[in-house]
């Protein structure tokens, strides 16, 4: 592929990714899609409705990813979730930090972007602190946590991190067939569990969020993994996925992209070329999608912080999410839906870590409320 053709393809991929992220932001705001809210509802009220929404989104994404893999449209082993090292300790530690932080910050990464779009200045503070934490974990002081947890809590798996590949390697079967069967059983089970609730079915927003977010994850896998696949990069001659920063296949994820967005904004070298990648355009797209929905529904409203404690909690929460999300390899969308859709073992571990961290955060919130009474 010639360089001009590659640039044109990359621009096309980024434009479609941006459009998908605008839709993501609008749906997330319309429906209140939020993993932190789902955990909070279960913990505080015993309500599983919003958790069923997450279950349907993950199930739909899982089935879509497996079908495309089976048809040969995308290459599962090229995803960022299929690396040969089983980083179980980074997934646990990072997940705990992220889950704890998202409770203090009043929402996870994508929820922060949605709330910025609707005029929430608290979330703008969270965005900045989260970006600082992510940058530190990627390139700065906090990267030591990633290195330490990886060195002491990971091991190499020749077949990679995707569970279908484990089974295929052990029995000599075809991984795409195993992946399809597992996705139908697990993903279909999650969708059936969601639909089994009359309360879930009664709300069109629940169906819109579950199906909509799940299908958007699938669409992004297709755009980057099929349309954006380049067999030979014009510079390196290696296979490459146009629009990505790493060259590896990915879908929606927001922690590292939030850090990269602030890093791009803060660039001081005027001679350095500004290069947009899919992570940054999806961050901007989700904010725009939420903003447009807020304007069209006449519900845009400025909201600020409520005193010293509220400010401190949101600052700490943002930092924890930024560091934790990078160490864990993704957020509630990056690992919790995109990663889970690949049936990555690390993604399932990270999700459990996030849930446990959120419970710790909710307990802290309850203690603070009781103390202030």
């Amino acid at each position: 592929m010639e360089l001009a053709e590659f640039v044109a393809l990359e621009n096309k991929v980024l434009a479609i990714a941006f459009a998908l992220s605008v839709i993501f932001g609008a749906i997330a705001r319309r429906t209140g899609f939020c993993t932190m809210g789902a955990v909070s509802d279960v913990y505080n009220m015993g309500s599983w409705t919003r958790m069923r929404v997450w279950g349907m989104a993950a199930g739909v994404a899982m089935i879509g990813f497996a079908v495309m893999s089976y048809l040969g449209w995308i290459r599962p082993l090229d995803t960022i979730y299929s690396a040969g090292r089983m980083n179980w300790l980074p997934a646990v530690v990072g997940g705990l930090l992220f889950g704890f932080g998202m409770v203090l910050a009043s929402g996870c990464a994508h929820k922060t972007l949605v709330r910025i779009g609707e005029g929430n200045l608290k979330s703008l503070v969270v965005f900045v602190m989260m970006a600082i934490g992510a940058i530190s974990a990627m390139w700065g002081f906090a990267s030591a946590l990633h290195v330490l947890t990886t060195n002491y809590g990971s091991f190499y798996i020749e077949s990679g991190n995707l569970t279908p590949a484990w089974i295929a390697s052990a029995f000599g079967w075809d991984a795409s067939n195993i992946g399809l069967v597992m996705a139908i059983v697990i993903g279909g089970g999650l969708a059936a569990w969601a639909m089994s609730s009359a309360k879930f079915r009664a709300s069109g927003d629940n169906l819109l969020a579950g199906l909509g977010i799940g299908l958007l994850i699938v669409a992004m896998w297709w755009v980057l993994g099929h349309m954006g696949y380049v067999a030979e990069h014009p510079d390196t001659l290696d296979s490459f996925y146009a629009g990505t920063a790493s060259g590896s296949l990915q879908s929606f994820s927001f922690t590292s992209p939030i850090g990269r967005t602030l890093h791009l904004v803060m660039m001081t070298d005027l001679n350095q070329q500004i290069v947009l990648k899919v992570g940054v355009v999806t961050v901007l797209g989700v904010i725009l999608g939420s903003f447009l929905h807020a304007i069209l529904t006449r519900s845009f409203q400025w909201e600020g912080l409520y005193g010293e404690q509220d400010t401190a909690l949101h600052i700490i929460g943002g930092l924890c999410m930024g560091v934790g999300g990078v160490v864990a390899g993704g957020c509630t969308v990056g690992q919790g839906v995109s990663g889970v859709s690949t049936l990555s073992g690390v993604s399932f571990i990270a999700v459990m870590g996030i849930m446990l961290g959120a419970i710790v955060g909710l307990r802290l919130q309850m203690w603070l409320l009781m103390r202030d009474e």
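The beta strands are 85-86, 155-156, 229-230, 240-241. The chain has a mean pLDDT of 93.
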